[in-house]
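Something for you to look into today, if you have time. Just paste the record in under my message, thanks.
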Amino acid sequence: MNLIGTIDSYFKKETEAAPLAAFRIFFGVMMFLSVVRFWANGWIEKLYIEPSFFFSYYGFEWVKPIGPYTYLIFVLCGLSALMVAIGFKYRLTIILFFLSFTYIELMDKTTYLNHYYFVSLLSFLMIFLPAGSYFSLDARNGTSYQKLPQWSIDSVKILLAIVYFYAGLAKLNSDWLIQGMPLKIWLPSKYDIPILGNFLHKEWIIYIFSWGGALYDLSIPFLLFWKRTRVLAFVLVVIFHVLTRVLFPIGMFPYIMIVSALIFFDPTLHHRILKGISRVLGFSKSLFDTGQVWIEKRQPIRRLKIGFLIAFFAAQMIIPFRYLLYPGELFWTEEGFRFSWRVMLMEKAGYANFKIRSSETGNEFYVDNSQFLTPFQEKQMSFQPDFILEYAHHLANHFKSTGHGSVEVYVESYVALNGRRSRPYIDPEVNLVAIKVSLAPKTWILPFNDEIKGI
C-alpha cells in the first residue's frame, strides 16, 4: 500500500467516542475554574485595567484590553468553557472559547506563559474535532455518535506528546544538565516547604530534579502511548505535576496536564468516568450509547480536515526550531524563545535605565519607568529585548506628544542569566527609536561572551 493509501486508511479508522467526551468535560471544567480563579484573585484588574501601557505581540498590536469591558471578555471565556464542558452548541462555544481565551493571551505579552499558548493551540484543534457528538447536550434525542474517527482522539495525544517531548529536548543544554541552573537558584528558596524543603538545598537533589525532569519529558509520551507502561506513566505524570505545583506557582497547568493524560487510556476507563458523572447528575448514560458512527459525509470537508491536521502538526514540529534562523545565544537574545516549549529554563534579571535626548537641542534626561509601567511589566521588560524596543518607541511617542519634539531614546541595560554576573545587554549608543519593530535579528543586543551548549 502506498503512502497516500496508508494515510487514507488511517483516517477511516473508528474508535469509541468516550475518551474525547471525557476529555472535553475535563478541559471545559478546568478552563472555567481557571477563569474564576483569575477573576477571584483580582488579576483582571491588576494586569489589564490598572496598567496604562501594554506590550504587544508582533502583528497583533491591535489586540488591547478594552477598559472595564475587559471583564466581559472573561465572562465570555468562562461561560463558553462551561458550555464546552456540557456540550451545548459545542462547535460555536469552542470557537468562542478559542477566540476569547486567545484574545486575553494576546492583550499583553507580559503575561506570556507556555501553558496559555498550549490552551490556545488545544482549543483551536478542538474546533475541528467532533468532541460534542457524544455524552453532551448536543447529543440528546438520538443524535449521539458512540464511535468517532481514530484521528480525532489521536490528534489530542499527539499535541500532548509534542509539548512533553520538545520540553525535554529544550532541557538538553549545559546550563540545565551540567550547571543545574536555574534550579540551583530556585529550589533552595523553597526551604519552608514541610519535609521536602530540608533537602532542596542539597546539590544531589538539584541534579536529580534536573536530570529527572529531562528524562521525564523525553520519555513520558512513549510511556503513555505504550499500554504496558501506561499506568506507571500516569503515576509519574501525577507525581511530576503535583511536585511542580508544590514548588512553583504555575496555577492550573499541572491539573490540566494530569487530566489530559487520561485520554491515553482505553475507552473502558472513560466509560466508567462518564457513567459516574451520569449518576451524579441523575441521568442514564445509556441514552447516548446508540452505536451510531460519526462519519464526515462531505468528502471535500474531510480532505480539508486531513490537510489541516497535517499542516497543523508540521507547524508545531517546526516552529520550536525557528531560533536557528537567528545568531547568538538563544537564552540571551530570546529570539525564537517563545512558543517553543522551553519551560522554566531561565532565571533572568535585568536593569534598564532609559535616556531621552532631544534631537534638536541635545538636552537629555532619564525616565522613571514606574510612571509608565507596573512593577511586573518593568521586571519583564528589563531583560527581554523586544519589550525594551517596544517600550522605547512608546517613550518616544509619549514625549513627542507632550511637547518635547523629536527625541532619541537610549538605554543603559544590564542582565544576569542563570547565576552569571550581570553584564551589559543593549548597546547604549544605539538610538532605539531608529530601529523598526520587526522579526529581523536584533544586532543591537551586545554579545553574550559565553556559551550554553545544547539544543
